[in-house]
Amino acid sequence: MSARDPGMGHSITRTMLAAVLAVVVVGAGATWWQVVDAQRLTSSPDDAANIAAGRRVVRGVIRDRDGRTLAASRRDENGEPYRVYPGEAMSGVIGYASRRYGSAGIERTFDAELTGVRDPDPIQDILDHLDPSRRTKGNELHTSLSLPLQRLAVAQLGKDAGAIVMLDPRTGEVLVDASTPTYDPNLIADPTADPDYFASLREDPAAPLLPRATLGLYTPGSVFKIVTAIAALGSGAITPETRYAEQPPAEKTGLLVDGYRVRDGHHDFTQPEPLALAEATEVSCNIFYALAGLATGGAELVAWAASLGFGAPIPYDLPTETSQVTDGSGNAPGGFVDRVELANAAYGQGEVIVTPIQMALVAAAVANDGVIMRPRVVTAVVSPDGSVSPRPAEVWLRPFGLDVARPVREAMTLAVEGEYGPLFTSGAKVPGVLTAGKSGTAEIGGDGEPHSWFIGFAPADDPQVAIAVVVENGGSGASRAAPIAGRMMRAFFAQAAK
Amino acid sequence: MTAAAAVAPRGLARIRPRLRRREAVLLVLVYVVLAVGGLSLGMTRTGEATVAGWQLLVTYGLALAFVHLAQTLAGRRTDQVLLPAVGMLGGLGLLVMIRLPQDLVTQDVGSLELGLAELQTLWLCLGLGVVGVLAVAVRSDTWLRMYKYTWAFAGLALLALTFVFGIDQGGARLTLVVGPFSGQPSELLKVILVVFLAGYLAEYRPLLASERTTLGPVRLPPLPYLAPMLAMVALGMGVVVVQRDLGAALLFYVVFLAMLYIATGRAAWVGLGVALGAIAAVALFLAFPHVRDRVSVWLDPFADPLGAGFQIVQALHAFARGGLFGVGLGAGLPEIAGRLPVPAVHTDFPLAAIGEEMGLATVLGVLGLYLVVLERGLRIAAAAADPFRTLLAAGLALVVGVQALVIAGGDLRIIPLTGITLPFVSYGGSSILANALVAGLLLALSDRGIEPPPPPRTRGPIMRALRGRGT
Predict the structure, then answer these.
(1) Is the CB of B306 less than 8 angstroms away from the CB of A101?
(2) Which pLDDT band, with edges at 50, 70 and 90, does B3 fall under?
(3) Do A12 and B378 touch (CB under 8 A)?
(4) Burial class (CB in 10 A: 0-12, 13-18, 19+), B288
(5) List of chain B residues whose C-beta atoms are within 8 Å of the C-beta of residue A104
(6) Left (φ > 0), alpha (ψ -120 to 50) or beta: where does A370 sit?
(7) Which of residues 72-101 of A touch B (CB under 8 A)?
(8) CA nearest to B38, candidates B324, B347, B46
(9) Across residues B256-285, what is the average pLDDT?
(10) Is B323 in Cβ contact with A35 (below 8 Å)?
(11) CB count, 10 Å around CB of B83?
C-alpha cells in the first residue's frame, strides 16, 4: 500500500462511474428497440418472423374492380406458396412479394392483411396473435384498379418512362396507377426464376423498380398553373375578370421582374388585348400567370398548394414523395429566394417539383368542386371466411369552394374545347364528352427534351374521371401527354357504357 | 505430523486448501441458469423434458468446477466473484451456440467433425484451463513488468505479420494463418497493449501528471511526453488502415485514454485525446469508403434494408421480437430460406440472439455482468500494491468492459457497428483464449499473497537516453 500514491483511487472511481453511465446508455438502447419501438418493427413486412410466416401462409388474392385477379398464389414442388401475377402492367402499384427479395407496392403496404398478421376484425386479430398456427390463409384484397385500363396506360406510354394516374374524383377510387418502365413481378416471386433478374432491375439506370406515379418527382411546367389559379382566386389576388395591361407588350419583350425577363411569345395571335384567367389558361400564357403569382405572393401560393396536399406525403395506400412549390432555401415569403423564383414557380418552373398522383388530385379537386377525396386503391378486405370489411370513401381535404372551382373549371374546359385551346391540348378531347384539362411542357434544363404533361377531367359539367399523364422527355404537352389522356378517358367512357 | 505429510515435498507443504464459499455459491447459481436454459431449449426442440446439449453443458460445468477446485486446493486468496461472472457469460454464450445451427462452423479434428457448440465448448474449456493455470501458478508479475518494450515489439511484430500474411475476410484483414492454426491477432494484441501501457504509464506517470507546457488556456504536460500519445493515435489508425478493423482501433484507443486518465488523474488528457481521436475519425471518414459506408448504414440502416443495412436491420428486428422476456430459447430466429435472419449472429450478434430468445431482462443482465467484471477488476486495481499492478488490473478489466460496450453499442445501433466479439459470449477461439488470459491475470493479481513488487524505479531507459547519460 505504501508504494501506491493517493491519486489513482479517485480516477479509478470516476472511470467506474463513466462505465456505469455507458452501460445505462446501452441498456436504454436495448429498451428502446425491445419495448418502445418493438411494435413498429415486429409488424413490418421486413421482419423475419413475418417473412417466415409468409412462407407458410397462403397470401390472399388481390382483385381489380371487376374481380379480375391481379395477384394469386401457387405452390411449388415443396408445397410452399409463391405469387403469380397477370403480366407486367401492374408492377408499379401491386408490386411483388418474394421469399427472397421481400415485397413492394400494395403487396408490401397491405402485407399484414394479405398474410393475416393483421385481421380487420379486432377480436379475431387478438385470437390470431394468441395462437399463430390458426393463420394459414390471408385476407383477400378488393381494389378499384382496372386491369384493362392499366394495360392500355402502359401500352400508351410504350417505350417511354412516365406515369399515368386516373381516379374517380367523387370517391377517390384509383382506376389506373401506372408507371413505366415496368418489370415482370413473376420473375421476382417465382422461386425457380433466374436470381440475376432482380439484381439487373436494381442496377438498371432506367429504374424500373421506381413507382413513378407515387415516388417520381417531376417539374410540372404549365399544369401547375391550375394550382396558381386556385391560389390567386382563393386568396382574392385576382378575380375571373382580372386583366393585366402590361401583359400584351411583355409577350414580345418579356416581363421584367427584378432585372430578369420572364419570356413567353408562343401565342402571337392573342395580341394586343389583355387576357383574363380563362383565355390565359386556354393559350397557357406564362406572363399572365407570372403576374397572378406575384400578386398572390409566395406565402399565399405555398399555403394554397399545401391545402391541396403539397408539402407532405399523401395518405395513399402506397408511400408517396412530397411535392413542393419551392425548396424553401430563400428568405422571401414562402421560402422563395426572390420574386424571380416566385414568378417562374407560378407557371410551374423554378423549384417546383411534383408527383403525378399529386397533380391528378389537383385535377380531381377542381372536378369535385374543391373537395379532395382520400385516394385509395384497396376498397375492401375480405377475410377467408367471406366477411367483408369495406374501406369506404372519405373526404381528405376541402381546400376551396364553388367560387374558385367554377372559374377554374371553365378555364380548363376552354383549354380543351376552346378556339385556341386544342393547339396546346390536341387529342385530349373525348368525342361527344365535354372535356377539361391543361397541358404542360416542363423545361428540365440542359439538352434534355421537356417532360410532356397533361391533367384533366371529364365530363367537364359532371366529372366522373380525373387524370394526370407525364411522359419523361416526351416533348410538348400536346405532342405526347394530351393525346394519351384523351385515349385513356375515351376508353374509360367506353367501358362505363358497357 | 503424519508420515504422509512428512514425505510431501517441501514446497507443497506450505500450501493449505482454503474454502471459497462465495465462489461456490455463485457457481451453483450459474449451474442453475445453465440447467434451466438447457431444459427450456430441449423442451422447445422435442416437446419433452430433455436438456439440449447436456453433454456439453456438463463438460463446461466440470471445467468451471475444476478452476474453482484448483484455486481452493492451491489455497489462493483470489477474487471469488470474477470466475462465476465470467462463467455465467461463457455459459450463456454456450447456450446460444447450442441453440444455433451447428453447421455455422465445422472443423475436422482427426476423424471427428465438430460443430459450432462442440468447438465452443472446446475453446471454453481451453480458456478455463488458461484461467486456472494463471490463477494458481502466477505468483510474480516480474515477467510482465520488466519486459514492457519486448512486449511492445511483440505486438508490433504481430501487427506486421497480419499485414503481410493476413487473410481478408469480409473486407477486413483480421485473420492470421500459421500452418493449421488461424487466429485473430487483435485479440491477443489488446492484452499486450495493456501490459505495455501499464509498464510505460507506471514509470512516467509523475512526469505525465506535471504541467510544464501551456497551449493557450490549456495546460499540458511536457511536450516530449505527448509522443507516446500520438504514437497511440497512429497505432489506432494503423489498425484501421492495415486491418480495416474499426472495432479494435476504437477499443485500443478508449482503453488507452482510460488508463492514461487513471495514471495521471488529468481530465485534460482525456479531452485532448478525444479531440485528437475525433480529428483522426474525420480523416478516416474522408479517406476510406468503407468507413463512410459504416457510418451511413449506422445513420439510416432502413434506407437499404435488403442491402447494406440488412444485418443491423435484421438484428434490430430480432431485439424487437424478443420484448421484455424473450420468445424462449429455440423459439426465435425464424429462418428464411434455410438461413438465419441475422448474418454472423454467432460472432457479431450473440446479443441479438439473447435479446430475442431471452428478452430485454437477460440483455440487461448480460450488461450488468460486464459491469461486475469491470467493478471487480477496478477493485483489484485500487487494492494493488503499486502503480504497475493498479494500471495492469484496471487496463485488463477495461479491455473486457470497453469491448463489450463497443459491440453491444454497435448491435443496438447506438454507435456504428464494428465486427468485434462480445467477450466470453461470442464464438471464437482467439476471442475466448485472449479474454481467458485477461480473467486469469486479473485473478492472479487479486491475490494479496502475490510476490511483493520490486522497489520502484524512477527513470527508465528512454529517460536516460533523452538526457544523454545514465543515472
Answers:
(1) yes
(2) very low
(3) yes
(4) middle
(5) none
(6) left
(7) 99-101
(8) B46
(9) 87
(10) yes
(11) 27
The count of CB pairs under 8 A between chains A and B is 144
Do B77 and B447 meet the contact criterion of CB atoms below 8 Å apart? yes
Grid coordinates of A196? 440475376
Give CA separation, A346 vs A19, A295, B379, in Å. 59, 10, 72
- The Cβ of residue A240 has, within 10 Å, a number of other Cβ atoms equal to 16
Contacting residues of B for A23, CB less than 8 Å apart? 367-368, 370-371, 405
pTM: 0.69
Residue to substitute from B250, B314, B413, B414, interface A, most A β-carbons within 10 A = B414
Backbone angles phi, psi at A358, to 5 degrees: -65, -40
CB contact under 8 A, A35 and B414: no
Query: Distance between CA A451 and CA A473 in Å, rounded?
Result: 4
The pLDDT confidence band at residue A256, using thresholds 50, 70 and 90, is confident
Interchain CB contact of A137 with B (< 8 Å): no
- For helices B429-446 and B82-99, give the axis angle rounded to 10 degrees: 170
Instruction: Give me B91's grid cell.
Output: 455459459
Stated length of chain B: 471
Is A200 considered catalytic here? no
Catalytic residue, from A222, A284, A439, A452: name it. Answer: A222
Residue type at position B139? R
Alpha helices per DSSP H over A219-310: 225-234, 247-253, 277-282, 286-296, 298-307
Cβ within 8 Å, pair B261-A14: yes
Choice between A165 and B149, residue whose per-residue pLDDT is larger: A165
Q: Is A470 helix (H, G, I), strand (E, B) or coil?
A: strand
Does the CB of A22 have a partner CB in chain B at under 8 Å? Answer: yes
What part of B 330-349 touches A (C-beta under 8 Å)? 333-337, 341
Cβ pair A477, A440 in contact under 8 A? yes
Written as nine digits, the cell of B274 is 478525444
Closest CB to A19 among B261, B360, B371:
B371
Chain B partners of A99 at a C-beta cutoff of 8 Å? 336-337
Q: How far, rounded to the nearest angstrom, does the alpha carbon of residue A134 sit from its chain's CA centroid?
A: 37
Bridge-partner residues for A141, per DSSP? A62, A381
A32 contacts in chain B (CB < 8 Å): 412
ipTM of this model? 0.88
Q: Which of A147-151, A458-462, B109-113 has the lowest mean pLDDT?
A: B109-113
pLDDT digit string, tens, across residues A132-182: 555 577 899 999 999 999 999 999 999 999 999 999 999 999 999 999 999
| Nearest-angstrom CA–CA distance, A197 and A37 | 35
Tell me the one-letter amino acid at B138.
Answer: V
Q: Residues A97, A54: contact at Cβ < 8 Å?
A: yes
Residue of B306, B319, B386 lying closest to A33 (CB–CB) = B319
Cell of A61: 388474392
Q: Residues in chain A, how many? A: 498
Query: Does A30 contact B368 at a Cβ distance shorter than 8 Å?
Result: no
SS3 content of chain A, % helix, strand, coil (to 5): 40, 15, 40
Helix (H, G, I), strand (E, B), or coil: what is residue A175?
A: strand
Region of poorest pLDDT, from A86-95, A375-384, B185-194: B185-194
- What is the distance between the alpha carbons of residues B134 and B397, in angstroms, rounded to a whole number? 16
Which residues sit opposite A454 in a β-bridge?
A439, A469
pLDDT digits (tens, 9 = 90+) for B202-247: 888 877 777 666 666 666 666 676 676 667 667 766 766 677 778 8
